[in-house]
Amino acid sequence: PIGTIKIVLVDLRANSNSNGTVEEFIIGRPDNYYRLKIPPRIWYGFKCISEEKALIANCVNIPHLDDESEICDVNKFAVSYNWYT
Exposed/middle/buried for 52, CB within 10 Å: 0-12, 13-18, 19+? Predict the structure, then answer.
């Protein structure tokens, strides 16, 4: 693995105990490589925050259909989060 990545998870599931929760993870530093498992129906976004390029791997154990995911513009997202800091 190379680079450092910021990953943000947002829970907007109506019946979830963690509804409205925003969690931020910084992974990829030489001492901070790990696997992050994202539960179903959790919104997420990620960006490279290192000067060098970063690599992220999406490893799944079942095939996904095109209609199982949705893309949303971060500037029109239902939760306020500043990606520029």
Answer: exposed
Token code pair at residue 3: 């680079």
Task: Give DSSP secondary structure letters for 12-79.
Answer: --TT-TTTT-EEEEEE-STT-----PPPTT-EEEEEE-SSS--------SS---GGG-----GGG-SS
Measured on CA atoms in the order 20, 21, 22, 28, is the torsion positive or negative? Answer: negative
Question: Can you tell me the distance from the alpha carbon of 55 to that of 57, in angstroms, rounded to the nearest whole number?
Answer: 7
- Residue 18 forms beta bridges with which residues? none
Q: β-strands 5-10, 22-27: how paired?
A: antiparallel
Give the global pTM. Answer: 0.82
pLDDT of residue 20: 87
